[in-house]
Recover the amino acids of this structure.
C-alpha cells in the first residue's frame, strides 16, 4: 500500500488519526528523527506549518493540514466506502458534533487537569482543578447518556465519532477517571472497550489504565538543608553576615515549594468541642430502626448539638442528565468515595428518586461546623450539587430530613428508588 503522505507527530501520538487511517486503509509515513519542541520549531517546519503545531499532515500531493480533528476527517473522507463519516450529510454532521464534543468538553479539560497536577501550570489552583474536573465529568455524563441505548454514536457502524470519543475517554482514564467515576459511566466504558479492540486498529491504543484515585497535585519539596558537620557548632555569625535574601526567582521557587510542607491541621478540628459524637450517631443509625420509639431519629434529637454541627439538603444540579436509576445510584457512590477525606466530619443519606429517564438525586447531610463547603469541597465534583441548610425547627425541613434518613423521601411525585449512606 503506497504512502499518501507524512504525519508529523511523535511516536505513539495522534491515536485518533492513526486509528482512522488504519480503518480507512490509508498508509502514511512518520518523520524520521522527529524531536518534539525542536523539529516543529525549525524554519523548515514552520515554513509549511506557521503555528509550529503537531499533528500536521503533509500529503504526497503537497496538501498541508494541521489540527487533529481536521486531519482525521480528511483521511476518513479519502475512503468514502469506509463509512467513517456516516452515509448521509446528516450522519456527517452528527459525526462532527460528537468529535467536537469529545475534544472541547473532555479532552480539553483533561489536558488542563494533567498540566495542573504535573506542575506545568503554576501556581496550582484547587478551584481551577475542581472547575476543570466538573466540566470534564459533565461532558462524560452527556456522552454516557447518548450511548446508553446505542452501540455506536452515529448509525449502526463504527465512525470517526466513536474513535474520537474512545480516545478522549482513554486519555481521561489516565488522569481523572478513577474506579468510582467509571461506575457512573458503564456504557461509555463498554463503548471504549468495543472501539479499541477493533481488529483493524489493534496495537494503536495502549491498555486502559485503572486509577484508584484521580491524579493529584504534589508540590515539589524544598531542598533539604545540608547535614551539619560533627564538629562543635560555630558561634553565630553577626547579623550583617547573614545570607542575603534570595533573588526574586528563588523567592518564587520557595513559595511554590512551601505547598509541600506538612499539611496544617484541618480548620474543622479547631472548632469548639461538641457534645454530639458523630461516630456514636453513625452506630445508632446503623443499629436502630430509623423511625419509632427508641429509634435512630429519637437518638439524634436527644444528642444533636446545633452549635457544633449542621444539617443540609443536597441536590444534584442536572437531573435532566440522569438516565438509568442504577447509574444514578452508582453516581452517588462515586460522590461518597470522593468525600472519603471528610469521613470524620460527615454523615449522609442520599438517594435516587423516580424512575428511569425521570429521576433526581437528593438527600440529607449531617456535617461538622456551620458551613457545608469546607466539608464537601474535598470531592472534585462537589459543585455539581446544591447544598441548602435545613432548619429542624421548621416542619417542612424536619420532614424532609427524616424522610431522607428513613429512605421514604418523595419529591414532586418521585418516590425513593435507591439510596446510599455515607458513614
Amino acid at each position: 500500500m503506497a504512502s499518501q503522505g507524512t504525519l508529523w507527530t511523535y511516536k505513539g501520538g495522534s491515536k485518533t488519526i492513526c486509528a482512522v487511517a488504519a480503518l480507512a486503509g490509508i498508509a502514511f509515513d512518520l518523520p524520521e528523527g522527529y524531536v518534539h519542541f525542536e523539529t516543529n520549531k525549525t524554519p523548515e517546519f514552520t515554513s509549511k506549518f506557521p503555528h509550529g503545531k503537531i499533528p500536521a499532515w503533509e500529503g504526497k500531493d503537497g496538501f498541508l493540514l494541521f489540527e487533529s480533528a481536521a486531519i482525521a476527517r480528511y483521511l476518513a473522507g479519502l475512503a468514502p466506502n469506509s463509512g467513517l463519516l456516516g452515509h448521509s450529510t446528516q450522519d456527517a454532521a452528527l459525526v462532527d458534533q460528537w468529535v467536537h464534543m469529545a475534544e472541547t468538553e473532555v479532552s480539553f479539560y483533561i489536558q488542563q487537569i494533567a498540566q495542573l497536577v504535573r506542575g506545568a501550570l503554576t501556581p496550582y489552583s484547587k478551584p481551577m482543578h475542581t472547575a476543570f474536573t466538573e466540566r470534564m465529568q459533565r461532558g462524560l455524563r452527556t456522552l454516557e447518556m447518548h450511548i446508553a441505548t446505542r452501540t455506536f454514536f452515529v448509525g449502526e457502524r463504527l465512525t470517526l465519532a466513536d474513535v474520537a470519543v474512545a480516545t478522549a475517554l482513554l486519555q481521561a482514564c489516565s488522569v481523572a477517571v478513577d474506579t468510582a467515576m467509571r461506575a457512573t459511566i458503564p456504557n461509555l466504558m463498554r463503548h471504549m472497550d468495543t472501539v479499541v479492540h477493533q481488529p483493524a486498529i489493534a496495537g494503536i491504543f495502549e491498555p486502559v489504565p485503572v486509577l484508584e484515585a484521580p491524579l493529584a497535585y504534589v508540590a515539589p519539596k524544598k531542598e533539604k538543608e545540608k547535614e551539619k558537620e560533627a564538629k562543635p557548632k560555630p558561634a553565630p555569625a553577626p547579623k550583617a553576615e547573614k545570607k542575603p535574601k534570595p533573588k526574586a526567582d528563588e523567592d518564587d521557587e520557595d513559595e511554590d515549594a512551601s505547598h509541600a510542607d506538612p499539611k496544617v491541621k484541618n480548620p474543622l478540628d479547631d472548632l469548639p468541642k461538641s457534645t454530639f459524637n458523630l461516630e456514636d450517631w453513625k452506630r445508632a443509625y446503623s443499629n436502630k430502626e430509623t423511625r419509632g420509639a427508641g429509634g435512630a431519629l429519637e437518638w439524634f434529637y436527644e444528642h444533636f448539638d446545633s452549635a457544633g454541627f449542621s444539617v443540609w439538603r443536597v441536590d444534584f444540579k442536572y437531573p435532566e442528565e440522569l438516565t438509568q436509576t442504577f447509574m444514578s445510584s452508582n453516581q452517588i457512590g462515586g460522590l461518597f468515595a470522593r468525600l472519603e477525606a471528610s469521613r470524620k466530619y460527615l454523615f449522609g443519606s442520599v438517594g435516587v428518586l423516580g424512575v428511569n429517564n425521570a429521576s433526581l438525586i437528593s438527600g440529607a447531610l449531617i456535617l461538622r461546623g456551620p458551613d457545608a463547603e469546607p466539608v464537601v469541597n474535598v470531592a472534585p465534583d462537589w459543585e455539581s450539587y446544591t447544598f441548602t441548610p435545613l432548619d429542624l425547627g421548621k416542619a417542612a425541613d424536619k420532614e424532609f430530613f427524616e424522610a431522607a434518613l428513613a429512605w421514604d423521601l418523595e419529591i414532586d411525585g418521585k418516590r425513593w428508588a435507591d439510596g446510599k449512606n455515607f458513614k
